[in-house]
Design a protein that fits this description.
heterotrimer; A alpha/beta; B alpha/beta; C alpha+beta; A: alpha/beta; Transcription Regulator spoIIAA; 5-stranded mixed β-sheet; 48% helix; B: alpha/beta; Globin-like; 2 domains; 9% strand
């Protein structure tokens, strides 16, 4: 069965969405990500959507669900590379992606994740090791 | 109704009719010699006459919307389009078709002997050329409209300069009245510039904007929300007292949008976000 | 309004939703839609196609290239024989949801297009027509 590849980059997982996703593929990604976060102990998830020409309310909701589910598993989620036309459309549609962090590109998303993880470790009194 | 002889006459006398028509056009006061050379006029006239003759052979003379007339309609639309962009007036453009009446009527008078038939043929020719002339005016109007639309678009693009103030900081200084269409274009070019430069902070400065209505305020809010979805933050600066009052009065939800009184305050905020500090160089006054 | 070409597509699965999106995308981009106009149209198509599939139990879509005067556009028509919508005004409001989803489908899609029409009766299916001009 088709699935979206999930790459491990350092302590983070990177998902690059390039195809026009049908709903089952979207749901499959959500399940796969939860498994990979647990299996790898990843602290963050980057979802690169620069190749995606539309995000509708269903996919928008999926980002929110992924972020919420990752948070429970102690990982932060950043959606990166949203095209201007997609952002304008989402605003008009009324989708705000609450609870989802965003960044302009993978590099900035990575910085954001690193800062978030570092900030958290500082709060709990340094890393355990 | 008897079959019109016009198709046959056009075919037989095409060359003579063309000469007479071109001569009549050249003699007319409305001819714009400054815009159209004699050679081009002759080519246009000859092409039109040829496709008119052809259409008449198979088409209904009373209805130029039929498929047989497609080529004639297209030709006239082309002529109207080029004349519209060259600066001809609608009347000057329609005269191209109407000026064919006189030579065509002369031809009918010479060739149709029976008075009742002549009246009938003249009437048919009048209706046909009137319809073609009106089509020309219509097409002229349409191409003018498309020229205006294109120019509006170009103007809009000219009036939206997005400038880079610092690495990672963009500014969009808005000047003049913001209407819905302009706000749309401005916001799209801002968001595109954010992608192109990778700027994480954009300052929308509205010092030069005299008034802000509900719709424009909402567009601004939407742009801020869209930028945030892309991963960039917007600051709105230069909100004048009256505009602040209007925004409150209109009940526009500014929500969590960052606002600063002056562009310089917004820039200071940007530096702070980027972890930069502006300091006086030692040893200088 | 003059219809220049028509493509009819069934909506039976989520793959069909993708096909409708792609069809609308192709024609709008052939007509020279700007990226924003194109994205709005395709997103609206996606919302309503999914609605047809999930709420209407499947149905059909018609994608048309249309012209009115000097303007060209894409018109989309979605039809199903599902349970229909009893209170259309309520269904158009943001936050209204029949089953799953955030309930932004109808009202949201309407904001993304220039013309939006809905006809529905409880028990007799739903027909939605929307047009976006270039």
């Amino acid at each position: 069965m088709e699935q979206t590849p999930i790459l491990k980059v350092g302590p983070f997982l990177l998902v690059t969405i390039q195809v026009d996703m049908h709903d089952r593929l979207v749901q499959r990604l959500q399940t796969d990500l939860a498994e990979r976060i647990t299996a790898t102990g990843a602290r963050g998830v980057l979802i690169d959507i620069s190749g995606l020409d539309i995000v509708d309310s269903f996919i928008g909701r999926m980002f929110g669900d992924i972020a919420a589910q990752a948070r429970i598993l102690d990982a932060e989620t950043v959606v990166v590379g949203m095209r201007p036309a997609v952002a304008i459309t989402l605003v008009e549609l009324g989708v705000r992606l609450q609870g989802v962090r965003t960044a302009l590109n993978v590099e900035k998303g990575m910085d954001l994740l690193q800062a978030a993880v570092a900030g958290e470790e500082e709060r709990v009194g340094g890393s355990p090791d | 109704m008897t079959t019109s002889r016009i198709p046959q006459l056009l075919r037989q006398h095409q060359a003579a009719l063309l000469d007479a028509w071109v001569k009549a056009q050249q003699a007319a006061l409305t001819l714009r010699r400054d815009l159209l050379s004699d050679a081009d006029l002759r080519i246009q006239s000859s092409d039109f006459l040829r496709s008119l003759t052809e259409a008449c052979q198979s088409g209904d003379l009373g209805d130029i919307q039929g498929p047989a007339w497609a080529e004639v309609r297209e030709f006239l639309s082309g002529v109207s389009g080029s004349r519209a962009s060259q600066g001809f007036s609608p009347a000057e453009t329609a005269t191209f078709v109407f000026s064919l009446k006189q030579p065509l009527f002369s031809l009918l008078r010479r060739e149709v002997a029976e008075p009742a038939a002549l009246v009938e043929e003249t009437w048919t020719a009048t209706v046909l050329l009137d319809n073609l002339g009106l089509h020309t005016v219509d097409a002229f109007q349409k191409s003018r409209e498309s020229i205006i639309t294109r120019q509006q678009q170009e103007l809009l693009e000219l009036s939206t300069p997005v400038v880079q103030l610092w690495t990672g900081v963009l500014a969009l200084p808005l000047i003049g009245t913001l209407d819905s269409a302009r706000t749309h274009v401005v916001m799209e070019s801002l968001l595109q510039a954010i992608v192109d430069t990778g700027a994480s902070l954009a300052i929308i400065d509205i010092t030069g904007v005299p008034t802000v209505d509900t719709l424009v305020a909402q567009h601004l809010m939407k742009a801020v929300a869209a930028a945030r979805l892309m991963g960039a933050e917007c600051v709105i600066s230069g909100i004048r007292p009256q505009i602040a009052q209007t925004i409150v009065h209109l009940g526009v939800e500014m929500g969590s949008v960052l606002t600063k009184a002056k562009l310089s305050d917004a820039l200071a905020l940007a530096f702070q976000r980027l972890g930069l500090a502006v300091a006086k160089a030692p040893g200088r006054a | 309004m003059e219809v220049r070409r028509i493509e009819a597509l069934p909506i039976r699965s989520s793959d069909d939703v993708v096909r409708v999106r792609r069809q609308a995308h192709n024609w709008a981009s052939e007509l020279g839609f700007s990226p924003v106009d194109l994205t709005k149209l395709v997103t609206a198509a996606s919302e309503i196609a999914r609605n047809t599939l999930e709420h209407g139990g499947g149905g059909s879509a018609r994608v048309e290239e249309v012209r009115r005067g000097v303007r060209v556009g894409v018109r989309l028509t979605f039809e199903d024989q599902g349970p229909g919508i009893a209170d259309i005004a309520q269904a158009m409001r943001d936050g209204f949801s029949t089953r799953r989803g955030m309930g932004l489908g109808l009202g949201g899609a309407k904001r993304l297009v220039d013309e939006f029409e809905i006809a529905s009766q409880a028990g007799a299916g739903t027909k939605i027509t929307m047009t976006r001009w270039k």
